[in-house]
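User: Can you predict the 3D structure of Mutator family transposase? Sequence below.
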Amino acid sequence: MLTELKNRGVADVCIAVCDGLKGLPEAITTVWELTVVQQCIIHLLRNTFRFASRKYWDQIAHDLRPVYTAASEAEAWARFEEFEEKWGTPYPAISRLWRTAWSEFIPFLDYDVEIRKVICSTNAIESLNARYRRAVRARGHFPNDQAAMKCLYLVTRSLDPTGQGRAR
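Assistant: Sure. Here are the predicted structure tokens for Mutator family transposase:
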């Protein structure tokens, strides 16, 4: 599919945010060699909690926050080492998870705070895709491609980032 996208004219992809699927970063960099692949921070945090007891989730989230809000890679690594001192012994799987994902986590730190808010997660695109699926499923089938495109256009127009029912 990625090669098909490239053949259709999607020639350059600057950054790709992935949700941790194995093999996806390699597939992306095979097709687009210069693409920076970044791990979705939200998915990384969710995966972190899978390895910890529910009663410690708030503490772990609090202790990880300085890692992903650090101003630089060196500062993030220092905060991660502090996190590891506290949580590495009871939950070594969390340390392994972050160490494994580190090379795909650090591109995030090269951007300003405003840009980080946009690229930290795949949730926005996942939400858009869910709305598209819901609209297509509700209509069943389309008489032609133009009708399908119109449906997707109308769904896109109806998105309301404020949540107050206004068209975009």
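The radius of gyration is 19 Å. The first helix runs from residue 2 to 7.
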